[in-house]
Design goal:
- The protein has about 325 residues and is α/β, with parallel strands linked by helices.
- The chain is built from 13 helices and 13 strands.
- A hairpin with a 2-residue loop joins strand 7 and strand 8.
- Helix 2 packs across helix 10 and helix 11 packs antiparallel against helix 13.
- About 5% of the residues have low confidence.
Length: about 325
């Protein structure tokens, strides 16, 4: 269902985005490089690239062995960034993530030893295995892009991208992320099992060496920072902003949901739609761009009621009906 809006998204209203075609071409180079390693998952790779150029972080909920670590390594290789992997366990301390100040007997002074969080691409494996205190140390770094130890605040590298994973099968002995912490992530993705043809291709490509060994850098980190700046300049019409807010407000008013999306969800949805438009070669955001990213951005921000989950209805199904119920704006040439 669509509605006419008072102002049209006309060519005169569109603000030209310098380098938008470059965004499309550069992201295509990025995704093609990653797809040479992650076979048969083009949409997941595309959405991971979208989150990267938005400056957001990704939560991957999936079973072991489907390529989560490989995806993070491939992204780091593609942008020439430093990669670190942190295995979250119940005995992991916040200082094991952020770093610690230790005494140097040689110099007679204290020195800060950076933790693995000081990297461009950080894979946090099984984030729900660590205690809430350690989870909070990571999520603070994700939100503030800095860590504070012994009263000293230190900035994290720029760009900074976190991919966190959760095993959706083995939940015993875990500390599930509360909704307030899930909201810190930009989007949630899954990889899943590959198709038969893709799995055969994976076997062939791994027979002699891992595809990561021959992967080349396709973007510099300066290129990535330019892409992140360009995405923010993609034009968003007032009617599209209103459409985004209406979608988010509909999740708050949905009786099937115990909790709807936050204002941060609105902002992330707009940013993701801007990136989707730029990746498609457009200089402005259309309602279809919003719909294309809504499930990935909002699904981790809404909480279905217990009785709804018991009937087998998940957040994605509820969100799909919500999107269908909110009228999308269309250009009004007479406005």
């Amino acid at each position: 269902m669509q509605q006419q809006v008072g102002a049209s998204v006309s060519s005169e209203a569109v603000v030209s985005v310098k380098g938008t075609p470059s965004v499309q071409n550069r992201v295509r180079d990025l995704t093609e490089a990653i797809e040479s390693v992650i076979v048969g998952k083009p949409e997941t790779v595309r959405m991971a690239g979208l989150a990267l150029i938005c400056g957001g972080h990704v939560l991957i909920e999936d079973i072991p062995g489907v390529g989560k670590t490989t995806l993070a390594k491939a992204i780091a290789r593609a942008i020439g960034g430093e990669f670190r992997r942190i295995q979250f366990t119940p005995d992991l301390l916040p200082s094991d993530v952020t770093g610690a100040t230790v005494y140097n007997q040689g110099t007679g002074g204290f020195e800060f030893h950076p933790g693995p969080i000081f990297a461009n691409v950080v894979l946090v494996d099984e984030i729900n295995r660590a205690t809430p205190k350690t989870q909070s140390a990571l999520l603070e770094a994700m939100e503030e892009r800095q860590v504070t130890t012994d009263g000293v605040t230190r900035d994290l590298p720029n760009p900074f991208f976190v991919i966190a994973t959760q095993n959706t099968v083995e939940m015993a002995g875990t500390y599930p992320l509360p909704e307030a912490q899930l909201d810190r992530f930009f989007m949630r993705l899954t990889l899943g099992y590959p198709e038969t043809k893709a799995e055969i291709e994976i076997l062939a490509s791994h027979q002699l060496e891992h595809p990561l060994e021959s992967m080349k850098e396709v973007l510099t980190m300066d290129d990535l920072l330019e892409l992140q700046a360009a995405v923010r300049e993609v034009f968003v019409h007032d009617s599209v902003r209103e459409y985004i807010v209406q979608i988010v407000r509909a999740t708050r008013e949905n009786p099937q949901l115990l909790m709807g999306a936050s204002p941060r969800g609105s902002l992330h949805l707009m940013r993701a739609a801007q990136a989707h438009a730029a990746m498609s070669g457009s200089e402005f955001v259309r309602p279809d761009d919003v719909k294309a990213v809504a499930l990935s951005v909002l699904s981790l921000r809404v909480l279905p009621r217990a009785d709804v989950r018991a009937r087998g209805t998940n957040a994605e199904q509820i969100l799909m009906k919500t999107l269908d119920s909110v009228p999308a704006p269309i250009p009004n040439p007479t406005a």
